[in-house]
Structures
1.
Amino acid sequence: MSGFDPFEKAAHKAHVWLNEIAGHMGDDATRQQAYAAMRAVLHALRDRLDVNEAAQLAAQLPLLVRGIYYEGWAPAKTPLKIRHRDEFLELVRGHLGKTDNVEPEPAVKAVFTVLREHVSEGEITDVMAEMPAEIRELLAA
């Protein structure tokens, strides 16, 4: 090969996302906690979105992050009919591991901040349009 390694590039992009998420979670957040947060929040978003919108969001994620996003997805069971902020936070909590020591609300805010930095404004608008008001307010914070 001529020095171009697509796996290294994909890994680098995933590391950038994890570092940014950890940075938004706070000074003492580890990369493991950032990974747990990213995975849990992306799974909660994916499960709450219409299948077409979930796929459109995935198309803008880096390769390895997209794989994490799709991991374990059952499209026939989505979208979940979650209408309230606390229900969404419980969905995130359900996707978090018991030993990750990550709280759902800061995780949601950190991950969605990074999504807004890397995903097109139009796609973020589309994702927000599918969310009920209470969840939109949580994501916009």
2.
Amino acid sequence: MLYDKKSDNELVAAYMNDDKQAFEVLLSRHKNKVYNYILSLVKDKALADDIFQDTHIKIVNTLRNGTYRDEGKYIQWVMRIAHNLVIDHFRRSQRFPTVRTDENFDIFDVLGNSEESIEQKIIREQINDDVKKLIRQLPEEQRKVLIMRHYSNMSFKDIAEKTDVSINTALGRMRYALINLRRMAEEKTTLLHM
């Protein structure tokens, strides 16, 4: 079998039929592109090595489990896995920040910054209440799209299906909702400063 002449999807199919060499060809075919993409995001060689390794573990597990959907877009799928693993890394590092210490380090400086003060909590709650009041003033079709997108985390495709409109219409309604919210917020700010 001439592996170099095979498409990515043919190699995936061969690997799923226990042809280990097919996966080796896939790996070597795309490793530079995937690795360089990860490295460009994380800017750390050791971390890029780890995420690259995790990417390929996830690929192998998905292929072995038979959950890979062959849509003719193998490399895009691989890049999406790599991208998601990078995002996961950044989310974890924000949740568990590393603290560099020196002779001027004081643990209470870090502890004090991580908790929200009562003042910050009141301000955040007031802002949330103000935004909710502004959202209630939007036309119903704009309000629905904005709530589905930001509070229910729905994709525009799902919003379009749920509201029985085209994706472009859903996008347009979202755009006008944001424009109207911005305008109402500016008007409210202007009134407060008069």
